[in-house]
Design a protein that fits this description.
Blueprint (H helix, E strand, L loop, with lengths): L8 E3 L19 E3 H11 L2 H9 L3 H14 L20 H13 L5 H10 L7 H4 L7 E11 L2 E12 L2 E10 L3 H15 L1
Antiparallel strand pairs: 1-2, 3-4, 4-5
Helix pairs in contact: 1-2, 4-5
Length: 194
């Protein structure tokens, strides 16, 4: 809505601190610029950053997001009601394709905003280029997700591989694999796709 800038300070409330993934929960800072929270969420999949940013979305905006998700994918995400735990949502390869396609073609955001998000996704802590043994001239904008709590074991990586003038979308979602095996499997599949 144009109400925030990347340098807008966002309060870090203790109720959103989560050690599920990432290390932002350890910070002593009481607030951080929006830019840092976005970088932490997109590059590191930091759960605290996600919870802080997610809390800023009001009911009207959630309804709008829900309508976009309905439009972009019939099976996109099992939407939750405001106030419910967002971890129950089901993300599918089709919904991830639609999100990356929307970013690539700037169908919802201004082109510079889509480009900024894709740029952030080219340098994540899950270094897909190295894991997949890709050449230096290949860029990958990817988002990874991980959930290793109790008996749940999920690790996913989806993104766009930039090979010269070609663009290839990939999405590998794993279940019930230890994290090291999931990384190796995703790396091998992305290497084969390349």
């Amino acid at each position: 809505n144009g109400e925030l800038r990347l340098d807008t300070e966002i309060e870090i409330e203790d109720m959103y601190r989560s050690n599920a993934f990432g290390d932002l929960y350890k910070t002593k800072e009481k607030s951080l610029p929006l830019r840092i929270l976005l970088e932490k969420m997109l590059r590191e999949s930091d759960d605290t950053a996600f919870k802080i940013l997610n809390s800023m979305v009001n009911a009207e905006q959630r309804a709008l997001i829900g309508s976009y998700l309905d439009y972009y994918s019939e099976e996109s995400i099992n939407k939750t009601k405001p106030g419910e735990d967002t971890d129950t949502g089901l993300v599918t390869p089709k919904s991830m394709y639609n999100i990356f396609s929307s970013l690539y073609f700037s169908t919802l955001l201004e082109p510079q905003d889509s480009e900024y998000i894709l740029f952030l996704l080219t340098d994540t802590v899950f270094g897909i280029n190295e894991i997949a043994d890709l050449p230096d001239n290949v860029t990958v904008a990817q988002k990874f997700g991980s959930k290793y709590i109790n008996n749940e074991k999920y690790f996913h990586s989806c993104g766009i591989i930039y090979i010269e003038e070609m663009r290839v979308f990939y999405c590998v979602m794993t279940k019930d694999l230890d994290i090291k095996t999931a990384h190796k499997l995703i790396g091998a599949i992305v290497h084969d796709i390349y």
